[in-house]
C-alpha cells in the first residue's frame, strides 16, 4: 500500500535567536563622511556585521555576549569604542567584500519579473536561491541571507542581512516559510513567507522583501570573555566573586603582579582593563564594618574589592597621579583600610543586579572608577588605563560579566 505524500516538509538547525542572537537591536548610526562645513553623512545599521558575528559564535559553540541595550542608554547600542561595535563594523565590511554582495547592486537594478535576458528577482529567488537555502539547512548549516527591497541604487541602503536557520514548505498550498534571525528584532523568531503565486516575501516583523540570496560567508574565531554569563536579574552580594566589564569599551577590570613605575607613582600593583579573559579578572566583594557575606548590595552600599589571584585590595589615594592621563591613580595593595572603600551607585537607585549599570565611587576622594582607551606597554602592560575620575561621564560605568 502506497504511503500518503507528505504535505508539510521542512527542517531547522539548532540556531535559536533567543540564545544565539544579540540582546539589543541594530540601531547603529555609521558616520561615513564629514563635509567641509562639519556636517556628517550617516548610514543606519550594521545588520551584516551582526548576522556574521552571531553565526561566528554559533558555529564556534560559544555564547554571544549577553549585554542588554539599557547599558548604553540613550544610544542603546555599544559605542564605536566598544570592541563589539568594532567587531560588527569589521564583519559588515567582510560581508560586502564577497562575490555574492554584488547582487545587492544587480538585483536592486532589475525588476521582479523576467525579461528577455534575465529571470528577474522573483525567479532568481525561488528557482535558484531557495533550493540552495534548503540544501544548506538540510545539511545542518545556517546561512546568511541578503534581503532585497531596493528598486534603484539610491535606495540600496534599504536592503538587509539576516541569518536563516530553517524552512517549511506546504505542498498543498505552495506556501514557503523561512525561519530567520533578524537583528532588527532581537532574540525573537521571525519568518519570511511567500505563497506560490506571490512575488514578495512577507516578514512577520513587518517588512516585505522582493527576494533574497545566499551570502558568501567565512567563519571567524569569536572573542569569548566568559562562558558563564549571569542572569541579569541575579542579585550581587558580599561574598560574591565577580568579573566587571567596562561598559563603554567592553574590556574587563584586571590586575596583575606588576607595580607602577612612573614618576610620582605609589609603586603599588597595577590595575588595568584587559581585552582577554583570565583569572586576574576576578574580584571578591567584601563588606565593610562587619557586613556579613551574603548581604545583597544596592545603591549606596560600601564595599571592598579584593583581587582573587594576588589577595590585594582595590584602592586609590588623593594626589597620586595615574601614568597616562594624570588622573588619580588606582592600584592594588596589601592593606584593607579606608583607601579601599568604594560606594556603589546603581542607575535609578536600584539594587545591584548582574545586568545593572553601576559606578564604583572611591569614598575618601569621591572619584569614580574610570577607564578609557589609553595604554602603554611600559606603564600599563599595554592594557587600558584605569583611574579615579573627579567628574562623571560614560567611562565610569561598569557591569557584571561573571558572577560566582
From TrEMBL:
Record keywords, A-Z: Repeat, Signal
Domain MIR, residue spans: 233-288, 294-347, 349-403
Protein's name in the database: MIR domain-containing protein
Keyword Hydrolase found: no
Keyword Signal: yes
Pfam family, one: MIR
Annotated source species: Cellulomonas xylanilytica
SMART domains registered for this protein in UniProt: MIR (SM00472)
InterPro entries for the chain: MIR_dom_sf, MIR_motif
